[in-house]
């Protein structure tokens, strides 16, 4: 397969060098190289090993090909973002805001700080509520209340994100007036989207804990709450952390609710409870939509770099989550 990728990569490289294509295409290289590999493997297997063995290899190769095709959108996305985002991936981008910047220059420090503060506040609100709700559904639920919670969680999982933003805006507008905008409103809106994801993912993880562990704890006279704290949660900590990180990755890139409740600003704001606050998704949106005139390319470059930074933040959070899960997961040594 590696040889087939090299062959198709060479063809694409020659086409790019001759000007037949706009540039090197890694997605096409992987796809057509995999197709070439499947064809050659099937033909060689039929010649050397016979028909039955060649069919077996063909089906195995088709499964592998389906897996690679599923990865192609991700590879294309990462390649495009990196290729376009490196143009402004410099110190200035991470050390300056857009205050008093017209044209080239400036940075996204204010958006990075806003994203981290709002996401942290969202996690502080959503994670305890989501995990405790999941514990109730798995360990204590079974009645009408549990069925109602499950129903509303399923409904909330599918609501559009802009509905959450409009709900929070209407709620705060009734209390503080229609002109209110701050980062805390954004955290509340994202919590509405994040809590159902945490509940559903953590509920499924908790159900995977064997009942024998609970029964062994009960047989020793350990109360139920202590069994949950000392047995159930530590056993499922790796899955719980993964579920929480998936929920954070789900909400960290939301744009519509934050555009409504947080607004946008070009200045630094460290106070999540006061004044407008910029986030990376809104920064990408505003830079792309406001690109015009001689400074259009500078705005587009900032938008791509902000998208790359957002992907790196999600990647860093997932790596940290895996490290935490590995440290706190129960040890099964003899």
From TrEMBL:
NCBIfam families: 3a0107s02c
GO cellular component, one term: plasma membrane
A Pfam family assignment: BPD_transp_1
Keywords: Cell membrane, Membrane, Phosphate transport, Transmembrane, Transmembrane helix, Transport
Predominant localisation class: membrane
Record-annotated ABC transmembrane type-1 domain positions: 112-321
CDD domains: TM_PBP2
Matching InterPro entries: MetI-like (IPR000515), MetI-like_sf (IPR035906), Phosphate_PstA (IPR005672), Phosphate_transprt_permease (IPR051408)
UniProt organism field: Microbacterium mangrovi
Superkingdom assignment: Bacteria
Cellular location(s): Cell membrane
PROSITE patterns noted in UniProt: ABC_TM1 (PS50928)
Protein name according to UniProt: Phosphate transport system permease protein PstA
Listed GO MF terms: phosphate transmembrane transporter activity
Transmembrane regions listed in the UniProt entry: 29-48, 60-87, 107-137, 149-176, 182-199, 231-249, 306-325
Role according to the record: Part of the binding-protein-dependent transport system for phosphate; probably responsible for the translocation of the substrate across the membrane.
Coiled coil: none
A single BP term in Gene Ontology: phosphate ion transmembrane transport
Record membrane topology: Multi-pass membrane protein
Protein family according to the UniProt entry: Belongs to the binding-protein-dependent transport system permease family. CysTW subfamily.
